[in-house]
Write a structure and sequence with these properties.
With 486 residues, the chain is of the alpha+beta class. It is 29% helix and 27% strand.
């Protein structure tokens, strides 16, 4: 069985087309053209704005012109993570695999976040049996790496009063709030020197961690490969003179780092000590993550002497800061049981071409003051370590409205179809809803979607039966809104 055999055929058919269009964040030109061509093919009114967002509009079914305008919203871009470091996300389509009741990709992220949201909206726009009021689809750019599209939404791109964000990942759940966030970068400048000739050099590699979304998966206790790397090197530095030549880990601010590596040297007389220490460290890590990180691999191998090394003072400050940096859950919500309130993700460490090492972190909270509190704690730590620290603009959270009209409609629709009252929740992740509210404070919004697991990692997968439920819930919501008077 392939994706083309799955039901609902219209939704999976469009989703398959989307998987064939490369769409990394900040490089959405091909998927934007796909949307424009789709609109032209189906004679749908389409608009774009200066930042690259795409909006489509469909007039109401006759007799339902007075219904509230309803917006279906999804983002175009996808997180690009692969087990094959050479996979070309800018030019290569995603290969999908049906595995029982799950759909996943062949060694890469699937892009169901948020391709299935796009597919649902496009399927609704082209469903001629669907009774609806004024209907709109809004597709935004660069959600994953900065919410750029939502933050720079042009005039005339939103005309309705109710919005369905199709970017959630749990069947039978409706989200009415989300966390705000801010990124913090920390730049270390270093002096480059010749790598000592009387040292033996190793490459330590940490790979195949679970990784995952730095919001929805941050409370799962998954390994942070950057911090595991720093921990080993820091402990070595207590008893050995060490020369750090290379360090790299993590890729995206909103993904838990699942891989990292470093090249370092110690005096040749200490070679065997390092091997013994590493074997003990591997045993400790395997024990700590037993039953959770079942695919995590740690390897140590000898390597040729690099030409250059990072100066010892910067090495000490960098490794100490990486090891000490907060990562994970900071506090839990007292208002909604089980919801993470505040967290921080030690996202990546990258060597720059101009003798710089850049550390990226990402902070989230449903409480604005606590978002900045944890960001400032990260700043304080890395400032003490001698880094140049900068914060991004951040994005606002979305406060729950428990009197929401569309929330009740969405919950009623699911219950009518499946006999289960969906849970009403907030999510510890950034959704574009908070930014829409800053420009359109009248919007009544919810977020929902089918069950996705392990998004932002090559283990991402989508539950096939949940897609069918998501599609019929979306149709029922549209039909119920069509019977309202604005």
């Amino acid at each position: 069985m392939t994706i083309k055999d799955l039901q609902p055929a219209n939704v999976f058919g469009i989703f398959h087309e989307i998987t064939q269009v490369p769409r990394p964040s900040k490089k959405e030109e091909k998927i934007r053209q796909f949307l424009l061509d789709f609109a032209a093919k189906h004679n749908i009114e389409v608009r774009t704005d200066a930042i690259g967002n795409v909006a489509m509009f469909k007039p109401a079914t006759h007799g339902h012109e007075q219904a509230p305008g309803l917006i279906m919203q999804a983002h175009m871009d996808m997180v690009c993570e692969s087990n094959d470091k050479g996979f070309d996300f800018e030019n290569t389509p995603i290969t999908t695999i049906v595995d029982g009741e799950w759909l996943h990709a062949d060694g890469t992220t699937l892009g169901a976040d948020n391709g299935i949201g796009m597919a649902g909206a496009l399927a609704a726009l082209t469903d001629e049996t669907l009774v609806h009021g004024p209907l709109q689809a809004l597709f935004t750019v660069d959600e994953e790496t900065g919410l750029t599209g939502a933050n720079n939404l042009g005039e005339g791109m939103i005309e309705g009063t109710m919005l369905l964000n199709l970017d959630s990942e749990d069947d039978a759940e409706i989200f009415v709030g989300c966390a705000g966030g801010v990124d913090t970068t920390c730049l270390f400048k270093y002096d480059r020197s010749m790598a000592p000739t009387d040292f033996h050099y190793f490459k330590i590699d940490i790979s195949k961690g679970l990784g995952g979304h730095s919001g929805s998966d941050i409370n799962a206790g998954r390994a942070n490969a950057v911090q595991l790397l720093a921990r080993f090197i820091w402990n070595l530095s207590l008893t050995h003179q060490l020369s750090l030549c290379e360090i790299d880990g993590g890729n995206l601010r909103n993904a838990i780092p699942r891989a990292a590596h470093a090249v370092f040297g110690v005096h040749t007389s200490k070679k065997e000590d390092i091997v013994v220490a590493f074997n003990k460290y591997v045993a400790d890590v395997e024990n700590e993550y037993k039953g959770l990180e079942t695919t995590l691999e740690l390897t140590l191998e000898s390597t040729e002497r690099p030409d250059f090394a990072v100066d010892s003072d910067t090495t000490r400050r960098l490794i100490s800061a990486l090891y000490a940096a907060p990562h994970g859950v900071i506090s839990m919500s007292r208002d909604l049981e089980g919801l993470v309130e505040t967290s921080t993700n030690l996202a990546s460490v990258k060597m720059q071409p101009d003798c710089g090492i850049l550390v990226t972190t990402s902070q989230r909270s449903s409480v604005e003051s606590r978002k900045w509190d944890i960001a400032h704690r990260v700043e304080a730590l890395f400032t003490l370590a001698g880094a140049e620290v900068a914060h991004g603009d951040g994005y606002p959270g979305w406060a729950p409205n428990m009197d929401s009209r569309i929330m009740k409609i969405a919950a009623d629709a699911y219950e009518e179809l499946y006999g289960i009252r969906p849970a009403i929740k907030a999510i510890h992740a950034g959704l574009e809803c908070g930014l829409f509210l800053t420009k359109y404070p009248h919007l009544d919004m919810v977020s929902f979607g089918p069950t996705l697991q392990n998004v932002h990692s090559p283990s991402e997968r989508m539950n096939i039966p949940a897609v069918d439920r998501y599609w019929h819930q979306l149709r029922r919501i549209i039909e119920k809104v069509a019977d309202l008077k604005d």
